[in-house]
Design goal:
single chain, about 675 residues, alpha/beta, Spore Coat Polysaccharide Biosynthesis Protein SpsA, Chain A, nine-stranded mixed beta sheet, globular, transferase, Glyco_trans_2-like, coiled coil
């Protein structure tokens, strides 16, 4: 029996080998055919390009491409008005840029003050820079930006994987080492090591780390520039806030001039959902050495997105991630750099997805999906698994307005793909006969219940109180989750409930909110920003921008943490709703939703805005605007109460809205100030 089995195995493997051999031969033949066709195609292309007519038509083709680009931009802006707003925004941005380049560098007096500051805790920073064939001009600028730091307790660890043709890299580093020795009168703060071979970004940086002796580790690219005060600012937050992971705002620049900025990225404070969707932290990451204990710095399997992987891992371990809201890192954009476009390193996309997936699995998530968004290949939509089939109670407060309510409920019933829900309409002193007729029709649907807030059983005051009406609806709800929904909304995306539920189900999330549009497809809600607007209470970010707009740094294209979401479409577990006492009925009309979200945050929960749950919101149709008479008076009173209740929170500022942004506009416009650092 054993011999027969052996013969069978030999024959099986022999046949399998022959089949694979035939496949390989066939594949080789196909490759040869394609190469031949490619040579023929290249010949034809070169013949066309050498044609005088083709050369003469170059100006026309350039003009045509310009018009096509403008058409694409106009589409993203929505209309001419949107384009005009974008142009104005860019003008303000260019004006602000003048304040964030070399004009922000410390003058002699400030440099002396920073240099002489003695902190209670003297921190030594080890700055790691992997070198590889670095152009002379880039290398000089990078080295100078470290040497010229106002805070002087640092060491620069350089691991050089350059080839023989770029041997000048080592010579230049040695020159700086000698200057350092002369400056310090002893040892150099620059440590250089020539590697036997180039090990890539991850490998070279890991070699830098073996040379480091500092308490805090900083990651710095060989072609970028640091602001002279960045280490001073980082030492300051370590001393004042016990920060163990720190990052700052950054800009990309071109033509070897940091004043010629392409984009400026003013970031939010630490936000885990933002980070999962987009490596917004990026530069200049500095962290306490202890965070690396038991793990490695860069993992080579994530080359191309090794920094995103590292940031996800180390911020998970950190006790206090601190964002320094100052532009202090200058990221050079040139051919071959990621700053110049992800096309330069396409493998970074897969690496980033892999890093995020590894992070999510580490947090216990399974069966999720990571996909690129329309904003950018490495800005992701993360689809979490819906656990079970929990019942959602959709609570809609209503008074009259039959057409609005009918449009809302019809869109829910006809478009929603999630089926385990109930609709609770809380009737509040309606007067028109048609609404009562519509209620009778609704009662025929087993998914809909009508609760009369004004009957003897409930007896809510006839004076409208949005909070009280919704609290009543929640009290009567059977669902595990509560979805507060305005009667003047209309569902757009069929899986809107799933998109909200996947976040509300998470143990760390309080409320989840949707992206809402006006009838003209401009944005009404994309997350709430504290202190934004004239009343300095709260306002909507990206307000009035077109539906196709990507948002500031792509923020209209991915789910993110926000301070609050609007009660016009808000999903939360009933357990949490009751835990925070529901909507505060002292906020009868306005700010009750923001107050509710801040109560959730006070208990340590995140509030998440997702752009993948979309609805129309025909705002103020139901109750009108709060801009005159008694309504304006009431709004002013509630605003004053809100500012008093959340005074400390408002003074601290919205953690998800950079303090460099103006609070007078919702388009992420920068403040125009002379002194920014």
């Amino acid at each position: 029996m054993q011999e027969e089995k052996t013969d069978y195995n030999e024959n099986y493997y022999k046949e399998a080998y022959e089949k694979e051999h035939i496949k390989c031969a066939d594949l080789a033949g196909r490759i040869a055919e394609l190469e031949e066709k490619n040579e023929e195609l290249n010949f034809k292309i070169n013949r066309i390009k050498s044609n005088p007519v083709w050369k003469a038509s170059a100006p026309f083709r350039k003009a045509m491409h310009f018009l096509l680009r403008q058409r694409s931009r106009l589409k993203n802006c929505g209309n001419l008005r949107g384009l005009a707003a974008k142009i104005k925004y860019k003008q303000r941005e260019r004006e602000a840029m003048e304040r964030y380049g070399t004009d922000s560098f410390p003058n002699e007096a400030r440099r002396k003050k920073e240099n002489e500051t003695v902190f209670p805790r003297i921190i030594k920073f080890s700055i790691l820079v992997p070198l590889y064939n670095t152009p002379k001009e880039f290398l000089t600028a990078m080295l100078d930006s470290v040497v010229n730091q106002t805070y002087e307790n640092w060491e620069l660890c350089l691991a050089d994987g350059s080839d023989e043709e770029h041997s000048y890299v080592g010579k230049m580093c040695e020159e700086y080492i000698e200057r350092e020795k002369a400056h310090t009168g002893g040892e150099s703060r620059i440590i250089y090591k020539k590697l036997e071979k180039n090990e890539g970004i991850s490998g070279n940086t890991n070699r830098c780390y073996t040379m480091a002796t500092g308490e805090y580790i900083g990651l710095f690219d060989h072609d970028d520039i640091l602001h002279p005060s960045v280490l001073y600012e980082y030492a300051k937050v370590i001393n004042e806030q016990d920060a163990d992971y720190i990052y700052c705002d950054e800009t990309t620049f071109k033509n070897n001039d940091i004043n010629k900025m392409l984009t400026m990225h003013f970031k939010p404070d630490y936000a885990v959902d933002n980070l999962r969707a987009n490596n917004y932290i990026c530069h200049f990451s500095v962290f306490q050495r202890q965070l690396l204990e038991g793990t490695e710095l860069f993992r080579t399997k994530y080359d191309g997105s090794q920094d995103h992987d590292m940031i996800l891992r180390l911020t998970d371990r950190a006790k206090n991630v601190v964002h320094v809201p100052k532009l202090m890192y200058y990221w050079r954009s040139h051919a071959g750099s990621v700053a110049s476009g992800i096309q330069a390193k396409t493998y970074a996309i897969d690496a980033a997805k892999g890093a995020v997936a590894d992070h999510l699995r580490g947090h216990g998530y399974e069966h999720f999906k990571i996909s690129s968004t329309r904003a950018f290949e490495t800005i992701f939509k993360i689809s979490y698994q819906i656990i079970g089939n929990p019942k959602i109670s959709i609570v809609i407060a209503n008074k009259d307005h039959k057409e609005d309510l009918s449009r809302c409920i019809t869109s829910i019933l006809e478009k929603s793909t999630y089926d385990n829900y109930e609709i609770i309409v809380v009737e509040n002193n309606s007067e028109t006969p048609e609404i009562w007729e519509y209620y009778e029709k609704l009662r025929e649907n087993e998914k809909v219940r009508i609760i009369n807030a004004g009957d003897s059983q409930h007896s809510i005051n006839r004076k409208f109180n949005y909070s009280a009406v919704n609290n009543l609806g929640v009290k009567e709800a059977d669902g595990e989750y509560i979805l507060l929904l305005n009667n003047d909304t209309q569902v757009i995306t069929v899986n809107w409930m799933e998109e909200l539920l996947m976040y509300a189900q998470r143990e760390d999330v309080g409320a989840a909110g949707a992206k809402l549009y006006y009838e003209n497809k401009t944005i009404q809600h994309a997350g709430v920003v504290l202190a934004l607007g004239a009343h300095r209470t709260a306002g909507h970010s990206h307000y009035g921008q077109h539906r196709e707009n990507l948002g500031y740094m792509g923020r209209l294209c991915y789910a993110q943490d926000v301070s609050a979401v609007t009660g016009a479409c808000l999903l939360v577990s009933k357990k949490l709703y009751e835990k925070v006492g529901g909507l505060d009925e002292s906020f009868a009309i306005s700010l009750n939703d923001v107050d509710f979200c801040l109560k959730l945050r006070e208990l340590g929960y995140l509030n998440v805005f997702t752009p993948f749950a979309e609805l129309y919101h025909f705002e103020s149709i139901s109750r009108g605007l709060d801009d005159e008479g008694e309504k304006a008076k009431r709004y002013n009173e509630e605003s004053a109460r809100f500012r008093e209740k959340w005074k400390a929170v408002l003074e601290k500022g919205d953690p998800y809205y950079n303090p460099n942004f103006s609070l007078d506009r919702s388009d992420f416009s920068l403040k125009i100030e002379k002194n920014v650092i």
